[in-house]
Specification:
The protein is an all-alpha fold. It has a domain at 26-84. Helix content is 75%, strand content 0%. The chain contains three helices and no strands. 1% of the residues are buried.
């Protein structure tokens, strides 16, 4: 049986490009980007822990010195840290 000849019209060529599977290099790049995103998420999580420790020490010092404004500011920063910590490293 002879092979079918391909139609060379631009419409069919663009449709084939859109549905074509990814090349090996493109798959490698996408994998690296996904892997980098996950590693970045882990790094942010570690940084968030260190920041929380630092804020805890600062709050403790502000309470012992009686600086109520600083305590309120630090509490607000801690609350913001809790809210902003979610959502990184998750696949969409």
């Amino acid at each position: 049986m002879p092979k079918r000849k391909r139609d060379t019209s631009a419409d069919i060529a663009s449709a084939e490009d859109a549905a074509a599977p990814l090349g090996a290099s493109q798959q490698r790049v996408q994998y690296k980007l996904k892997q980098g995103t996950v590693k970045l998420g882990h790094a942010f999580k570690v940084a968030k822990g260190f920041e929380r420790q630092k804020l805890g020490r600062r709050r403790k010092a502000a309470v012992s010195e009686g600086k109520e404004k600083d305590v309120q500011r630090i509490d607000a920063e801690i609350a913001a840290l809790k809210v902003r910590g979610h959502g990184l490293g998750q696949s969409v």
